[in-house]
Specification:
The chain has 117 residues and is an all-alpha fold. It has two domains: 83 residues; 34 residues, no CATH class. It is built from four helices and no strands. The two termini are 31 Å apart. Bound molecules: zinc ion (ZN). The site of zinc ion has 8 residues, from α4. Zinc ion binds next to α4.
């Protein structure tokens, strides 16, 4: 992979990282608001809705955190020069795929194999 492409992908990853960090922060704030609201809620229906909202927030935060780890991982790989290789078959992951999903760990072949199972 040439330096220009590497830089390009690094920028995409940095943008994604910033976005995920913002989302995690927003989610945490919304969850806090929901928590304080729930404290006052007397009505059962309100409480149930809040619990449901909290679950969604928690799920989103977990997803974002996992993605953040993948993004960090990809950034490290770029630094170490082992970025863009499939973790299963060690083939190069196509640049088209990396541009859409720069933190892909598997090539399209291995990925579709995993999803089928
Ligand atoms: Zn592969």
């Amino acid at each position: 992979m040439d330096a220009k492409r590497k830089k390009e992908l690094k920028e995409i990853l940095m943008d994604m990282k910033a976005l995920k960090l913002t989302e995690i922060k927003q989610n945490a704030e919304e969850k806090e608001n929901a928590d304080s609201y729930q404290h006052d809620a007397q009505d059962f229906a309100d409480t149930a809705t809040n619990a449901y909202d909290k679950d969604i927030h928690l799920e989103l935060t977990e997803k974002n955190k996992k993605m953040l780890i993948d993004i960090e991982d990809a950034l490290n790989k770029i630094e170490e020069g082992r970025f863009g290789k499939c973790e299963r078959c060690a083939r190069d992951i196509s640049i088209e795929r990396l541009k859409v999903l720069p933190f892909s760990k598997l090539c399209i072949k291995c990925q579709s194999g995993t999803e089928k199972k």
